[in-house]
Amino acid sequence: MRDLNKLRSETPGCQHKMHLNNAGAALPSRRVIKAIQDYFDLENEIGGYEAMAEKAAETNDFYISLSKMLNCQPHNIAHATSATDAYSKALSSIIFQKDDIILTTDDDYVSNQIAFLVLEKRHGVKLIRAEKNSSGGVSVDSMANLIKKHQPKLVAVTHIPTNSGLIQDIEAIGHLCKKNNILYLVDACQSAGQMPLDVAKIKCDFLTATFRKFMRGPRGVGFLYVSDKVLEMNLEPIFPDLSAGVWTGKNEYHLEKTAKRFEVWERNYSLIMGATAAVNYASEVGLEDIQKRVKFSTSL
Question: What single string gives the DSSP state of each residue in 80-132?
């Protein structure tokens, strides 16, 4: 890992405090702050639309940088305003019928659990939670048995729940979902930026995260990974806008072919620039090294 004193010197907030709330909203690096401020200054000088056009190539790096970090392609990445926004769009694209099963855990985020209950109330889906293992995390064996018994429409797992210290075995669960051709949604809100994430190994269909936590990016921006399987299924969010498709006739539209079908047109481009800087910074430091340091710190 790069010299810790140098890393701290690159984070203005570290000059006058010890900040221990990365799980909520981490202190950004100077590079992230500058990327946001520079773009905002440009908007103030030439206008929002003009800045968007002038910086189109740089804002496109958002997709390229994230795809490298997640081991996928840029067309699999969609911008979101938060992890919850990304999660809701993913859920809304799945066409649930009465008595469809959502298989999840007892340790998903409250926002996710509320969304499941809304789907239960509106569409008559059934919510099943897998049992825990001896360590307190979700039992992969329980997941396997419930998948075999119920053939759920969706399996949804939070990688690292908010305050329990659990790290769920999302790769083993992904293998089960892949084997049984079941849609798989992973909430990586706490793991993104704290450890490597490889969607090819996880075998997920959706993965959501925010930038304000361990990614050390700005608040108000997140991302959604969408698998090629989902794109080939032509799944779409419940209310796509002109960024997600083209209105081709009075009563028809064509969807964007990439994960951008999950985006909306209006977004804060200064935050996107900051988020991209955060991804690049984490990648340069090295996710493997970051994970080692996190493990070292928690063992002290």
Answer: ESSHHHHHHHHHHHS---TT-EEEE-TTS-HHHHHHHHHHHHHH--EEEEPPB
